[in-house]
Amino acid sequence: MVQLVNTVDTPHEVDRESAVPVNKAENRSLYASREAIHPKAAHGRFRRFKWAMVVILLGIYYVAPWLRWTRPGDAPDQAILIDMANRRFYFFFIEIWPQEFYYIAGLLIMAGVGLFLVTSLFGRAWCGYACPQTVWTDLYVWVESKIEGDRNARIRLDAAPWSVSKLSRRSFKMLVWLLIAIATGGFWVFYFADAPTLFRELVTGEAPSVAYFTIAILTATTFTFAGFMREQVCTYMCPWPRIQGAMLDEESLIVTYNAWRGEPRHSGRKKAEAQGLKIGDCVDCNACVAVCPMGIDIRDGNQLECINCALCIDACDAVMDKIGKPRGLINYTTADLYAANVAGKNEHWNWRHLIRPRTIIYFTAWAGVGLAMLFSITHRTQLDVNVVADRNPLYVTLSDGAIRNGYTIKILNKRQQPRTFRLSIDKLSGATMEMVGDSGAKGTSFDIAVEPDKLKAVKIYVSTDEHDIIKHEHTRFEFKVEELSPKGDVPAETATYDALFHGPDDKE
Amino acid sequence: MATNIEKDEVSGTPTTGHVWDGIRELNTPLPKWWLYTFYGCILFAIGYTIAYPAWPLPGGATQGILGWSSRGQLQQQMDAAAAAQKDTVDKIAAMNVNDILKDPKLLAFAQAGGAAAFKVNCVPCHGAGAAGGKGYPNLNDDDWLWGGTPDAIYTTLQHGIRYADDPSTRDSQMPNFGIDGILTPDQIDQVANYVMTLSGETADAGKAETGKQIFADNCAACHNPDGKGNREFGAPNLSDKLWLYGGGIDNVKAQVTKPHMGVMPAWTKRLDDATIKELAIYVHSLGGGEAPAAQ
Q1: In this structure, is residue A347 part of a structural domain?
Q2: What residues of B are in contact with residue A461 (Cβ under 8 Å)?
Q3: Whether the bond into A264 is cis, omega within 30 of 0
Q4: Chain A interface mutation, best of B8, B100, B136, B141, highest count of A Cβ atoms under 10 Å
Q5: Domain identity same for A207 and A313
Q6: CA gap A320, B231 in Å, rounded
Q7: Last residue of a domain, one of A221, A247, A273
Q8: For residue A455, what are the β-bridge partners?
């Protein structure tokens, strides 16, 4: 991690008090209690952006499962649905089968590389604005401030002895939190089943127990993490802050206290000016500390706990406006620019800092995976053929000396209409096929009907007594699957599958 | 406790005194909730070992107060599966094999059940792929010693082959032409050459000519004058390309001199009727099964 150390000299020597620290490090416990953090409400452009993110992200979370999308046939009409029972994933016009799980893998790769890209550009933007932990904590703190008041009122309430008023405020807050937590867990399950149906079942008590169980777990984690653990989750439980240290570099935009401008800090400005002391822009008002949801002092430099939410920027800008100094004592800047300014150069950030080898590589990888997926999803067929050859025995000698191989042929019809396919073999001379099972049909091609959105598996025996073929260890040939008379204006799809015909190895 | 604890200059955190490559380890206090979570896990673990089988003792592990065991759980699952399958299994037990073939659902069930029973009971001799081996028939092909209709396979499974404990077992015996002195080694050579010609293999034409009469006198009663065998006696078809005890003149001569005769157990002693029917249907479905005789 880039470690910013405030390199500017501390204020002048003052008289030394003769005091003994009660909590001397040597006597300190190996275990630390959490000290409650009561962030003061911030106002400004980053706070507005954060509210917008809260509204948008929660909006998506709560609304998405209710969006309808009409699909033909028996397919569900929910726009976004992870249908575990039938092993399908629906996303608007896209339907993904388990065989196409690589799309999910691709999305995860994009999410991962995208996170690297954003982090190397803007530091921990994910942590500050988009992480569910941040979003729900914001919501919980907002509820808390509406019921118990802002920072000072909450600190007073914390310290106050238990009374009817304190108890009722606390219980009301917990109740609202609990309702939000239940809604959080409750909406999660709607992504996995038809939302209106499941909602009715949940209310009437007919939903499957796994739904209630999932809701209970997510309710408990939401209530605990957003209500009580908050910054502890980020600092102690989440691995991401540690990984982020490796993602940041000297040109990443991170929330920074510009010590070269602020120090030496001084609270009694006018008096100090009158005395002719050298003073920085920081008036030591602690506004940046009061609004910090992580409970840190940004003036100590870049720290593991900092989620880059920029609320301290809002707080400090308001103070700078008030005392008539330029904004940006605390701002988004890079370690390089900070160092340059410390060295006395007056350098400012511009968008060109975003373009550098690291971000170009991340972006290329991200866009590459995205384009590959886009190409593949627009060019994918609605027909898939898989052939599994019998492996034990590889071949069977028949009484007339012919050789027989067995194959299981799986035809996937991904359309929502019934379709018929003609299965035939190519490049295997003298071969005949036999359909195993009730029909027992023999011939060189079969017509196979496949139900809508279903996989049909047929077992086929292929036999030949062609001397050249059966005396070879294996011979390459093809299974051909052609669609017959497709409905509507869609073109007929075909697929071929390379297969091997095994025979006795004649070399022995 | 150490009295002089060094502090890290940058963070102000006390250090443990451990240094690696100049990097000093900070002594950051653990959060209390972490400690309590740890204690909670220990309590849970203790409760878990009381509730479930855990502590190994002489004479067996503690049983746990819930009475759970993996064997018991398996038994429950097996019982549940058996209960769920009971109707179908009863139906299979009550039907004749040919009728089961006509019901696609029962057929699929029987094939799957037969495949499972095959793995447990038949694989040691017939192999995992039912391809057999020398002396053990390949069940995938279209050559059957005792018949390849579902009924014939069912009978073979029920009563076995040359199985002494079952009076209705399929039985037959090929004479020891060589070691009992019925035929001289020369005669065996001649008849073996004749047998090779039956399936179009190369053979000594002169010996085969003499062997033809020896075959008619000694072998045709069971193997038929044309060598196509006889399923009444499980006498193999000598005119096809498949050889139970190996092809080639040497193997044929050995078999005539001192015949191998395979034995198969009668499965009624070990398996219930429904399972035997499932096995018959599975074996019939392996690729060489013959159509049921017209009723």
Answers
A1: yes
A2: 287
A3: yes
A4: B141
A5: no
A6: 106
A7: A247
A8: A412
Q: Does domain B86-169+268-284 have CATH number 3.40.50.300?
A: no
Q: Is residue A367 part of a domain?
A: no
For domain B185-257, the CATH architecture is Orthogonal Bundle (1.10)
User: Residues with Cβ < 8 Å from B136, sequence gap 6 or more?
Assistant: B125, B126, B127, B262
Residues of A with CB under 8 A from a CB of B: 3, 5, 25-26, 28-34, 229, 232, 236, 390-393, 396-401, 404, 406, 436-438, 461
Pairing of strands A396-397, A254-257: unpaired
Return the SS3 of A277.
Answer: coil
Closest-CA distance of chain B to residue A347, Å: 27
Q: How far is B58 from chain A (nearest CA, A)?
A: 40
Decide if B246 touches A, using CB distance below 8 A. Answer: no
Ranges of CATH 1.10.760.10 domains, chain B? 86-169+268-284, 185-257
Neighbouring residues of B146: CB distance < 8 A, sequence distance ≥ 6:
B152, B155, B156, B161, B170, B231, B234
Interface probe for A, chosen from B32, B118, B136 (most Cβ of A below 10 Å), is: B32
B9 touches chain A (CB under 8 A): no
Residue A339 lies in a domain: yes
pLDDT for A27 equals: 56
Q: What is the count of structural domains for chain A?
A: 3
Cβ of A393 within 8 Å of Cβ of B140? The answer is yes
B242 touches chain A (CB under 8 A): yes
In chain A, which residue's Cα lies nearest the Cα of B281?
A: A437
Q: How close B134 comes to chain A (CA, Å)? A: 14
Residue A100's pLDDT is what?
Answer: 87
Decide if B141 touches A, using CB distance below 8 A.
yes
- Cα gap B129→B141, rounded to integer Å: 12
**Looking at CA atoms only, how far is residue B7 from chain A in angstroms?**
9
Residue ranges making up the domain that contains A80: 33-247
Does one domain contain both A231 and A132?
yes
B128 touches chain A (CB under 8 A): yes
State whether A344 and A387 are in the same domain.
Answer: no
Are A34 and B143 an interchain contact pair (Cβ–Cβ within 8 Å)?
no
What is the biggest distance separating any 2 CA atoms in chain A, rounded to whole angstroms? 115
H or E, element range at B279: helix B273-284
Q: Is B14 at the interface with chain A, CB within 8 A?
A: yes
Residue A10 included in any domain: no
Does the complex come out with an ipTM higher than 0.85? no
Q: Are residues A413 and A292 in the same domain?
A: no
Residues contacting residue A93 through CB under 8 Å, at least 6 positions apart: A69
pLDDT tens for chain A, residues 1 to 508: 444 544 455 555 566 666 655 555 555 567 888 888 899 999 999 999 999 999 999 999 999 999 999 888 778 899 999 998 889 999 988 888 988 888 999 999 999 999 999 999 998 999 999 999 999 999 999 999 999 999 999 999 999 999 999 999 999 999 999 999 999 988 999 999 999 999 999 999 899 999 999 999 999 999 999 999 999 999 889 998 888 778 888 899 999 999 999 888 887 777 777 787 788 889 888 999 999 999 999 998 888 889 999 999 999 999 999 988 999 999 999 999 999 999 988 888 888 889 999 999 999 999 999 999 999 988 888 899 999 999 989 999 999 889 999 999 999 998 888 999 999 999 888 899 988 865 678 888 899 999 988 899 999 999 998 888 888 888 999 999 999 987 777 888 999 999 999 988 765 4
A94-96 and A88-91 strand pairing: antiparallel
Q: Are A465 and A400 in contact (CB under 8 A)?
A: yes
Instruction: Compute how many other C-beta atoms are within 10 angstroms of the C-beta atom of residue B108.
Output: 14
On whether both A147 and A233 belong to a single domain, the answer is yes
Chain B residues whose CB is inside 8 A of the A436 CB are: 285, 287
User: Pick from A34, A391, A399: which is nearest to B240 by CB?
Assistant: A399
